[in-house]
Amino acid sequence: MKLNFSGRHYPQDIIMRALRYYLAYKLSYREIEEIFSERNIHFDHSTLNRWVIKYAPMFRRRKRRVSGSWRMDETYIKVKGKWVYYYRAVDKFSAIIDFYLSETRDEPAARAFFNKAINQHGLPEKVVIDKSGANAAALDTINICLWLSGHMLFMIEVLAGSLGKGLNRPWRVLSFGP
Prior knowledge:
This protein is globular. The chain starts with 11 loop residues before the first helix and ends with a strand. It is an alpha+beta fold. Helix 1 crosses helix 3 and helix 4 (107-121) packs across helix 5 (133-140). The chain has a six-stranded mixed beta sheet, sandwiched between helices. It has six helices and six strands. The protein has helices spanning 12-25, 29-38, 45-55, 107-121, 133-140, 153-159, and strands at residues 69-79, 82-91, 96-102, 126-130, 145-149, 171-175. It folds into two domains: 12-58; 69-175, Nucleotidyltransferase, domain 5 (2-Layer Sandwich). 37% of the residues lie in helices and 24% in strands. Keywords: DNA recombination, DNA-binding, Transposition. InterPro entries: DDE_dom, IS_Transposase, RNaseH-like_sf, RNaseH_sf, Transpos_IS6.
């Protein structure tokens, strides 16, 4: 059964991640609210309660391992009437690895996003990013080798299509390892 998130103030993956925390780790609504506020995503615990009532019966409890190949991008979206930068990484199977909302598009925001994703899922084999200087600078602090890759653009635009913004920029592939 497909979940319908139309009319919600938050993107689908934010709601899904909050539900996952609640179902998989048995955290309280207020604990989940605090976890998301650390990521600069603010919602009330009663909002989470409404999400659980509506979506938990349809939400399957399983944790998928993410692949070693990540695709990362940031875009500008409106959340509750306010424009913010939405950082998101997906693996090659379109599974969402992590996300982060930030008021700024700069190196500290990109670094916070990558640190969170790497701490939670481990070091990937490679990461495909756009030509954003902030993303490249954040990954340079982790001592990553960069090179250009143009063949991933279409796939990332398809994955980000739910956000309504098509990007047309060259992409970089980042390789982790020896």
